[in-house]
Amino acid sequence: MRRDDGGFTLLEVMVAFMIAALALGALMRGAGGGLQASRVAAHTQQALSRARSHLAASTLALAPGEQGGDDGGGYAWRATITRLIAAALPRGDGGQDATRRPLVLYSLRVTVAWTMDGGRREVSLDTLRLGQATPEGP
User: Long-range contacts of range 7-14, CB-CB < 8 Å, 24 or more positions apart?
Assistant: First the structure.
């Protein structure tokens, strides 16, 4: 007579533990990757907010050149303003007066950079703005 007690063999238990360990390892790697992606997204959002702020400040006084510096919290910024096109438009009163308002099309780029996990990351915002020519000429 054969006795069948319905239990698991040692080999079956070992295989089950090995599968559970592999699955747990994969879940831990996935969770770690998700946390890393969340940290990168938070830093990127912070950098975008800072870049928008510097872009708004740069449009107040349009003058060709570069500015930049430390923005605190491990972020550094750089704003570059380049003159693209200068044109003298007729006065708004519709008269044939020779006096014209010189306008200039400027290209603005603001870059905010930071270091994370031993690598450099950055975000850049670009825009075009129309402004008055600077007194030193168009």
Answer: none
